[in-house]
Each structure stands twice: as structure tokens, then as C-alpha cells.
Amino acid sequence: MTGRDGLLRQFTKTVLETALDEQMTEHLGHEKHEKSADGRAANTRNGTTAKTVTTEAAGPVTIKVPHDRDGSFDPVIVKKRYRRLNDVDSVAPMLGA
């Protein structure tokens, strides 16, 4: 359950990646693969980068952090240049949970 590929680590990965995807959707103003009225979007998703973060409960977790084309996306739950997540619960109010 808490081992290298344990349930807690997989759950943490899924929750973090889902939150990051939702933050990207909010940032861009449209869903993944959705086009604007004229068929083009000024800023779009531009892939992901793997990042290993350390959590108190699950230990190190490798996640995929999304990027946008113009580099203006600034994640809230997993901040740029940070590798340690000490209190993920404190971020929930910022995400509207």
C-alpha cells in the first residue's frame, strides 16, 4: 500500500496531476483539444515535463507538469522550482475544493 508503487503514491500522483490539468484549463480558458470560435487559440498546452516531488505521506512521487506555449502558466499546487510538498491540504481552498 505504501511501497514503491503503492496505492498511496499512485493516488497522490493522480490527484496532483488532475489538479495541475484543471489549473491549466482555468489558466487557458478552454478545455484540452477545444478550439476558439475562429479555430485558433492564442495560448495552448505545450506538453508536460516529469518532476519528482517529495510528500510527507507518500514520499517521492514523479508527476507530469503541464506547460503552455507562451510559458505564462504558474502552477499553484506544485510551484515552479519547488520539490517538497509539505502541506498539500492548505492548497485545497485555493483550488475551490
Folded structure, characterized:
Required for the transposition of the insertion element. One of its GO terms (biological process) is DNA transposition. This is Mutator family transposase. Belongs to the transposase mutator family. The protein has one helix and three strands. It is α+β, with helices and mostly antiparallel strands and 97 residues long. It has one domain. Strands 2-1-3 form a three-stranded mixed beta sheet. A hairpin with a 3-residue loop joins strand 1 and strand 2. It is elongated and about 50 Å long.
Q: What are the key terms here?
A:
97 residues, three-stranded mixed beta sheet, alpha+beta, 1 helix
In short:
By secondary structure, this protein is of the alpha+beta class. The protein has 1 helix and 3 strands.
The number of distinct structural domains comes to 1
Low-confidence stretches: 89-97
Give the rounded overall mean pLDDT. Answer: 82
Distance between the termini: 26 Å
Integer-rounded radius of gyration: 15 Å
Largest sheet report: 3 strands, mixed
Structural class category: alpha+beta
Total strands: the figure is 3
Broad shape = elongated
Q: What's the tally of helices?
A: 1
The share of residues in helices is 10-25%
H/E element order:
HEEE
Can you list the strand order of the major beta sheet? 2-1-3
Q: Looking at the chains present, what oligomeric state does this protein adopt?
A: single chain
Residues in β-strands, percent: 15-25%
GO biological process, one term: DNA transposition
Organism: Bifidobacterium biavatii DSM 23969
Keywords: DNA recombination, DNA-binding, Transposable element, Transposition
InterPro entries: Transposase_mutator (IPR001207)
